[in-house]
């Protein structure tokens, strides 16, 4: 079976370094690795509208922001299909058919849905579109017969629900759909990078993000105010690594060669950690090192983005062409689904022939 990747992001804001280490960096590697026949990258604007239905302009403006972030990190439209969810109407049709295979009780048990409902204060008044997101996601994944879906650990219940829908459909109708596997980051620090203030989640409203499109000065300023160890008051004090955001970011971004370039007195990250925990190493020195590491990582991204920003119509054209390719693939799957469900009335010549014979015999 061909290996196919599907992944994407909701266009509700610019993408940040949490997205980068959690998925974007991995997507680029997978795109370039050659093991996968097809890589599908979706801008999930229809899903974004389920909880931004009253502010469509927010979604509209951020489609291009996400596209620029995709291209700037190295996603190549010649190797990956970049497309916009709402431009593939076949996804909506598949969602409708799959909704018959899922109960309300099963959706209510989905941990990810429960958490998101609580986060958005939807407990008393849940939009149906938001509530049925797991079904929509199943349509997104199966439409392109994705075998692999890179996700964070918090999204694993959604992938499991997709697998349930696939098994149910294939059992009731015919073995048409592909059951996907989740692919999560291996490095612990990359699974959920905290905000610069030490909070568990990066959030635009909290102002604790480092965006991929931030300038060098903005990145440096955000790192300078980054949360460390509140008990590490003096350089001589022993420091703690747990909950220390600076070291979490170093775990995610630092490579061995960074030490020879920016901090040659240390052999590796473990040596730096050992010095910090026994005392005698100040937070500012560690932050300065982290700044150098992240600027090296982000500078090529900033430069590529600046080039793409010079021709925005060309970026929209990339999305248009990608959406057209995606729709062709989804249409093939939808055709197979309709065949399996026996609702392919006009394509089934045998059905038409048998019905014609049935009524002619009556005469």
Structural class, from secondary structure content? mainly alpha
Number of strands: 5
Count of alpha and pi helical runs? 17
Q: Determine the strand fraction and express it as a percent band.
A: 5-15%
Overall spatial form: elongated
Strand order of the largest sheet: 1-2-3
Describe it for me?
This protein is mainly alpha-helical and about 375 residues long. It is built from 17 helices and 5 strands. Helix 11 (about 215-225) packs antiparallel against helix 15.
Keywords:
mainly alpha; 56% helix; 363 residues; 17 helices; 6% strand
Element layout with pairings:
Elements: E1 4-9, H1 17-33, E2 38-43, H2 45-48, H3 56-73, E3 80-84, H4 89-98, H5 104-109, H6 111-119, H7 128-131, H8 133-143, E4 148-150, H9 156-172, E5 181-183, H10 188-191, H11 216-224, H12 245-253, H13 257-262, H14 269-278, H15 283-309, H16 312-341, H17 349-362
